[in-house]
Design goal:
Elements (H helix, E strand, L loop, with lengths): L6 H8 L3 H9 L6 H14 L20 H5 L2 E5 L13 H14 L3 E5 L4 H4 L8 E7 L4 H10 L3 E4 L9 E5 L1 H14 L5 E4 L6 H16 L21 H16 L5 E4 L2 H13 L9 E3 L5 H5 L6 E3 L2 H17 L7 E4 L2 E3 L14
Helix pairs in contact: 1-2, 1-3, 2-3, 5-13, 8-9, 10-11
């Protein structure tokens, strides 16, 4: 039988005191962020978080929740207000809509919070007043640790933490991007380039993997693997537009512009399209441009954007279903749900060499 992983064992592993480990795992102050992250990572590697009730507070929760109980409780929806990750977003907002509709159908309330600091967030986490938590988008490890420590059931959408295990809901990013890339290859493209920061999120990285896999399956060598355009922070205006414009100018002048730019999401693709039009470069005549997500602006783009439709409301509903199932069966194995996504063919991605103007 494996020995129990204690705080003292973690402390010995790191060469710190048990007091430091206790402070770091409690969500309280007293240790700096770097030390806290080291403790969390070591605890995860040693298997501390996988031990049943090893660090959870003694919270008494009913084995099942009746409809009457649900009507008196709510689900917390945590969406830290970072980058473009807000309720008003054309992407994240639709996911929130799906969550709201599913909870309303179950007679359960919803409270949206955007707190980013664990010490403040802990005051909201009253286990006796909430059924569980749904995290939407990027959430810090320290915040998720606080949720786990208190023992609140949670499901994450479009995010997973390598240190804190939980149920997750994603779109099938790898498969969908693979299908989109295979379509481009099928209509004749051999010079394809992925644009987006693969460190930005798990979804971006999975889309990159789908892109690369499709190239490899078709015997196509990826171009410029260390290209700076892979490391852009986002698809918003400003720095992105300036850096991409310089990159595009250099490619056009040197005659090395790819015939297809496969973007990590629609916002990046819309920015790419805008810059290329300013440079007088035709889409899709000289370069096809594709996105991912199918936000409303993708259809309104000039030309309308070929993309992947992410069923955003369905992701929200699936998260609610998973959370309610988790509440009923807390000991069931953790699951990663993948929602299928379809390619939407529009005018921004034609065969190479077709001089169709915008």
């Amino acid at each position: 039988m494996a020995k129990k992983v204690t705080m003292q064992k973690i402390a010995d592993h790191l060469g710190v005191s048990k007091f430091v480990v206790s402070k770091a795992l409690s969500g309280k102050g007293g240790v700096n962020e770097a030390t806290r992250e080291r403790v969390i990572q070591a605890a995860s590697q040693l298997g501390y978080f996988t031990q049943k009730n090893s660090y959870l507070q003694p919270v008494v929760r009913a084995a099942s929740v009746s409809p009457e109980d649900r009507s008196r409780q709510s689900v917390l929806v945590l969406m830290p207000n970072i980058r473009s990750q807000t309720q008003d977003s054309v992407y994240w907002g639709r996911i929130i809509d799906g969550i709201a509709l599913a909870l309303d159908a179950e007679g359960v309330g919803m409270v949206i919070i955007s707190e980013q600091r664990p010490e403040h967030f802990a005051h909201v986490l009253n286990p006796n007043g909430i059924l569980g938590l749904i995290g939407v988008g990027q959430i810090s490890t320290s915040m998720l640790l606080e949720v786990r420590r208190i023992g609140v059931p949670m499901v994450l959408i479009d995010h997973e933490d390598p240190l804190i295990p939980s149920d997750t809901v994603f779109v099938g990013n790898v498969d969908a991007m693979g299908r989109l890339t295979n379509h481009l290859i099928g209509i004749g493209h051999r010079s394809l380039h992925f644009i987006g920061n693969i460190r930005y999120s798990r979804s971006f990285r999975d889309r990159w993997i789908g892109f690369r896999s499709a190239l490899e399956e078709n015997g196509i060598q990826p171009q410029d693997q260390n290209d700076p355009m892979l490391l852009m922070e986002s698809g918003e205006e400003g720095i992105f537009g300036e850096s991409f414009q310089q990159w595009a100018k250099e490619r056009i002048e040197s005659g090395t512009m790819p015939t297809a730019l496969v973007c990590a999401n629609d916002m990046i693709a819309l920015g790419v399209g805008g810059v290329l039009r300013e440079l007088g470069w035709s889409i899709p005549g000289k370069t096809a441009v594709t996105g991912f997500d199918n936000i409303d602006d993708a259809f309104r783009a000039v030309p309308p954007l070929t993309t992947v439709h992410v069923p955003k409301e369905a992701m929200g509903r699936a998260a609610v279903d998973k959370l309610l199932n988790r509440i009923q069966g807390p000991a069931a194995p953790l699951m990663k749900l993948l929602i299928s996504a379809d390619v939407v063919h529009r005018d921004s991605a034609g065969a190479p060499g077709t001089e169709e103007q915008d």
